[in-house]
Amino acid sequence: AADADTKSVLYCTHSKTITMLSKTSFILSTLVVLSPCVGSFSITRTHLVQQPKASSLSTSGGIVTRFPPTKSIRKCDTRIAMSSNPNEDDVKKETTWDRITGPKLFKTVTNWEGIHSVPLVPLRIATGLLMIHHGSEGGVGPANFGTPEFQGFVDYIIKPHFGFLPGSPELWSAIHDYAEFYGGILFALGFLTRPAALSLLVTMFSAVYFHLSSTGLQGFPLGHVSNYSYDFEEPLLYSLIFLTFWFNGAGPLSVDSVIYEAISEEDE
Question: What's the DSSP call for residue 236?
Fold first, then answer.
């Protein structure tokens, strides 16, 4: 009877121990499973929303596998960004008057591409046509030998002011006409623009020298002449135009740009 009582007490004690261990194991398992979910809803003082440390659990083979934790998301940054973005209806649209009187009044274009290169086209074409007119003295084409206009250029410009050049004055007069006439055609078309601009630049520098040697500065910069004909200023401006195209090229709507796109191997 004593052995039976002892066995009964031991059996009851063993059952209670197993029951307590089972409850403890159940509680621990529940905490392990719920701990990522609890952590996902915790908000710190810096308003950090902690994402679940494990996106999923694997219990294969009795081993709990946890995937790497994800990064935290700063919720306050999103709120601040949303609050700092003004309403589209409240954004003030820039008007033409704002562009004239605002900060863009003082902005300098540093890249002559796109819309900024459009003014180069009429400037190049008009300048080339004017050069064609300058190079056709005494007729339709250049170097019209024997005409009063061509001979006047020889007698009143080349001989008195360019007599130091070797060769006959008629030869230099013809070279001048050819450079302006055919150079003007090439310049207007935008074909071989840099060589054409260089040849026209030389002729304009020669014209500036001629006018300065014959009439001087004409009171530049504040004086005035009686007939208001400032002779050296026109070829000087032409020179600056040709210098610009010699450095920058023809620009859009030119033969040079078409050829360059066809043969260039550079990555734009």
Answer: H
